[in-house]
Write a structure and sequence with these properties.
Structural class: alpha/beta
Number of domains: 1
Mean pLDDT: 95
Number of helices: 11
Shape: globular
Distance between the termini: 11 Å
CATH superfamily: Aldolase class I
Length: 253
């Protein structure tokens, strides 16, 4: 049966894996290489690494990414600090299969087109971080959620699609790390507006949330962090991933 992609999103800061809540208060959860080894055993079909240190410093740790890529047996997406076209080519050379571009997609949107034309749209992800204001309106933020753009996510998603992005990574800042469920309205509004795949992220607290984002939010793929790295009410660190049978049961119609 067809299964939507279920993608662990791993954040690292200063060479360590962390997990945030609403993009703040990063909690240390271990080393990236160890996590990759566990996900290899679990036969995860795709992993995304986002470097929040590089987002602020604009310095990509190519050495660390290369080590992760060499260890990983599954396709890797990388995001964080990608500001130059040359960065993208270098990431592909060390084994990254998809590059997620966030801040530069807003400040220098031509980078999306250049990357898509050079390497194929399937390898270029526009990363869109969104927060909901008290008045109910959504706004796209960049700079790891610190810089408002004035753009609404639907219009912005359409623009990224027109520029050549092959996928959108849509993250709710408000739901990040809260484990209260995805923002289904946000996901559905963007998914309905574009023809390219939308990866839903931010808020998953149980496996049923993944199903909801797929069936009700119309996401093409689902991504999550907390449910794959925490266990129990006290959120003990335990890296895990559902097996094939669990996923088939989860997404059966």
């Amino acid at each position: 049966m067809f299964l939507p992609r279920v993608i662990p999103i791993l954040l690292f800061k200063d060479l360590c894996l962390v997990k945030t809540i609403r993009f703040e208060n990063p909690r240390h959860i271990g080393g990236p290489i160890n996590a990759v080894k566990i996900f290899n055993v679990k036969e995860v079909n795709e992993i995304a690494f986002l470097d929040i240190t590089a987002t602020k410093s604009h310095v990509i740790n190519f050495e660390m990414i290369s080590k992760i890529s060499q260890e990983c047996l599954t396709p890797l997406t990388y995001g964080g600090g990608v500001t130059k076209f040359d960065d993208i080519g270098r990431l592909f050379k060390i084994g990254i299969e998809k590059v997620a571009i966030n801040t530069a997609a807003f400040s220098n949107p031509q980078i999306i087109t250049e990357a898509s034309e050079a390497y194929g749209s399937q390898s270029v992800i526009a990363s869109i971080d969104v927060s909901k204001h008290a008045n109910g309106l959504y706004e796209v933020f960049v700079g790891n959620g610190s810089i408002p753009t004035g753009a609404d996510p639907v219009s912005y998603a359409k623009r990224m699609e027109a520029l050549g992005a092959g996928e959108l990574l849509l993250t709710s800042i408000d739901r990040d790390g809260t484990m209260v469920g995805y923002d289904i309205d946000l996901i559905r509004s963007v998914s309905d507006a574009v023809k390219i795949p939308v990866i839903a992220s931010g808020g998953a607290g149980k496996l049923q949330d993944l199903r909801s984002a797929y069936l009700h939010g119309k996401a093409s793929a689902v991504a999550a962090g907390s449910i794959f790295v925490f266990f129990g009410k006290k959120k003990a660190v335990l890296i895990t991933y559902p097996d094939r049978d669990e996923l088939e049961a989860l997404f059966v119609l």
